[in-house]
C-alpha cells in the first residue's frame, strides 16, 4: 500500500525512510520535497496540490496547521489518514469529522528523528488493515508503539514537553558563564539537555509551548523554591523526590 507524506521536514523524512512501502512526499516548498526525495531511496516528490490518491496519507506538518491539512488532503486518502504532528485531540477530532468512513490513527514519535528508534504514542481512533500495516512497519524498525487516548497524551505533553522544555531553557537563560572545570554531574547533565533542546529550531518548540500548558507551573515552582527558607525548603526537597 502506497503512502503520501505531507510535510518533508525532519519527521516527514523520518517516516518516509522508515516505512516499507512506496512513498511520495510533498511540501508547501517544492524544493524541500525534491531534496527529501533525492536523499531517500524509492521516494518521489509530488506537488502540494496533487490530485493523486494514496492508500495512506500521513500528515507530518506543524501543529498549527494540522487541522487544515486534514481537510486539504482528505480526498487524497483512499483508505486511511494518520498524523505525526505531536498533538492529538485536534487531529483526531478533525479526522473523525472529515474521514468518517476511513481508517484514522494519530501517532506521536516521542523523539527527534536523529534519535530514532524510540517510543511512539498511538491513538487508534479507527484502525484497520492499512494503519495496522503502517504500525507494523514502525515496530519492525525498532520503535516501541503504545496505545493511549488523545486526552491522556495531550495532558502528558504538558509535563514531558512544555514543562520540561521550560525548565531547561530557563536554566540556560539563568546560568552564568563558568569554566568547564567547575561542572558538577548535575550541571553537566543540564548542559547536555540545553544542547539537545537548542539544537532544534525555535518554531517547533514555540508551537509546543503555545499548544500545551506547563510553563506557568515551572515558573510557580521556581518561585516557591526561591522563596523557601528553613523547613519550607526541606518540604520542597522531599516533595520533589520521585518516590514521595
Automatic annotation (TrEMBL):
What is a single molecular function from GO for this protein? NAD+ binding
Recorded hits in PROSITE patterns, A to Z, give:
PDH_ADH (PS51176)
Q: Which domain of life is it from?
A: Archaea
Task: Look up keyword Transcription and say if it applies.
Answer: no
The record's Gene Ontology biological-process terms are: tyrosine biosynthetic process
Gene3D superfamilies associated with the record: NAD(P)-binding Rossmann-like Domain (3.40.50.720)
Record flagged with keyword Oxidoreductase: yes
Q: Which UniProt keywords apply?
A: Oxidoreductase
Residue ranges of every copy of the Prephenate/arogenate dehydrogenase domain listed in the record? 1-244
Q: Which PANTHER family match?
A: PREPHENATE DEHYDROGENASE, PREPHENATE DEHYDROGENASE [NADP(+)]
Tell me the protein's name. Answer: Prephenate dehydrogenase
Q: Which organism is it from?
A: Haloplanus salinus
Q: What is the lineage of its organism?
A: Archaea, Methanobacteriati, Methanobacteriota, Stenosarchaea group, Halobacteria
Amino acid at each position: 500500500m502506497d503512502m503520501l507524506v505531507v510535510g518533508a521536514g525532519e519527521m516527514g523524512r523520518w517516516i518516509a525512510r522508515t516505512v516499507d512501502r512506496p512513498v511520495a512526499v510533498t511540501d508547501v516548498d517544492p524544493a524541500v520535497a525534491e531534496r527529501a526525495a533525492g536523499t531517500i531511496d524509492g521516494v518521489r516528490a509530488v506537488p502540494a496540490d496533487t490530485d493523486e490518491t494514496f492508500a495512506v496519507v500521513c500528515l507530518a506538518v506543524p501543529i498549527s496547521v494540522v487541522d487544515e491539512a486534514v481537510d486539504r488532503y482528505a480526498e487524497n486518502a483512499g483508505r486511511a489518514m494518520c498524523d505525526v504532528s505531536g498533538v492529538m485531540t485536534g487531529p483526531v477530532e478533525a479526522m473523525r469529522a472529515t474521514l468518517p468512513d476511513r481508517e484514522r490513527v494519530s501517532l506521536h514519535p516521542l523523539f527527534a528523528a536523529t534519535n530514532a528508534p524510540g517510543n511512539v504514542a498511538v491513538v487508534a481512533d479507527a484502525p484497520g488493515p492499512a494503519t495496522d500495516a503502517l504500525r507494523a512497519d514502525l515496530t519492525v524498525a525498532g520503535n516501541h508503539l503504545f496505545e493511549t487516548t488523545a486526552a491522556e497524551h495531550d495532558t502528558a505533553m504538558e509535563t514531558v514537553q512544555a514543562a520540561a522544555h521550560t525548565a531547561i531553557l530557563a536554566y540556560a537563560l539563568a546560568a552564568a558563564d563558568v569554566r568547564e572545570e567547575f561542572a558538577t554531574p548535575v550541571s553537566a547533565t543540564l548542559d547536555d539537555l540545553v544542547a539537545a533542546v537548542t539544537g532544534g529550531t525555535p518554531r517547533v518548540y514555540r508551537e509546543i509551548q503555545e499548544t500545551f500548558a506547563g510553563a506557568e507551573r515551572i515558573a510557580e515552582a521556581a518561585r516557591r523554591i526561591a522563596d523557601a527558607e528553613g523547613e519550607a525548603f526541606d518540604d520542597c526537597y522531599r516533595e520533589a523526590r520521585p518516590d514521595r
